[in-house]
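To the wet lab folks,

You asked to see what we're planning to order before we commit. Fair enough. Below is the target structure as tokens, and below that is the sequence we designed to fit it. If anything looks off to you, flag it before the synthesis order goes out.
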């Protein structure tokens, strides 16, 4: 992939709301060419979507519970972890699935309306899948940073002042 497309992707990753006009200025290209590159990158699934990161705690609607589940699986011949990961991806509760190195094979992030709902998901849906050996569930208590964005960045500096 050429340098211009990489710079375009980096700009979009930083701010998906940036205008094509601003992108064209940044890249020193005609706006029509930038629109064409974006369309091409969407068509070949390099750009998969555009998301908005919301601090739900500030809305008063923070009823959801987020959990990260470490999953140990038995890889299948010729397909490794892909088939089980694809199956896990199909559950609507699942927000992210990653193949990991270390003690567990997959890391699964889910959202539920309560800890009980998350526990039922693990016990009834995830742990019962063929080739799942074990799981370890971790509940997210507070988000400090996500996708490069710091939550509550405008808070005052709480460090003590050091004076000579």
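Sequence we intend to order:
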């Amino acid at each position: 992939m050429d340098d211009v497309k990489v710079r375009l992707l980096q700009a979009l990753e930083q701010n998906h709301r940036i205008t094509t006009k601003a992108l064209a200025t940044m890249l020193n290209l005609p706006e029509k060419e930038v629109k064409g590159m974006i369309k091409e990158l969407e068509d070949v699934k390099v750009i998969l979507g555009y998301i908005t990161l919301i601090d739900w705690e500030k809305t008063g609607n923070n009823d959801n519970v987020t959990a990260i589940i470490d999953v140990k699986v038995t890889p299948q011949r010729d397909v490794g972890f892909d088939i089980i990961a694809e199956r896990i991806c199909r559950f609507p509760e699942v927000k992210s699935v990653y193949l990991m190195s270390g003690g567990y094979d997959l890391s699964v992030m889910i959202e539920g309306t309560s800890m009980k709902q998350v526990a039922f998901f693990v016990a009834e849906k995830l742990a019962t899948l063929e080739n799942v050996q074990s799981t370890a569930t971790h509940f997210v208590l507070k988000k400090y940073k996500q996708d490069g964005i710091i939550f509550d960045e405008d808070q005052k500096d709480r460090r003590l002042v050091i004076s000579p």
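Structural context that might help your review: The chain has two domains: 3-43, 56-145. The chain is about 30% helix and 20% strand.

Thanks,
Computational group
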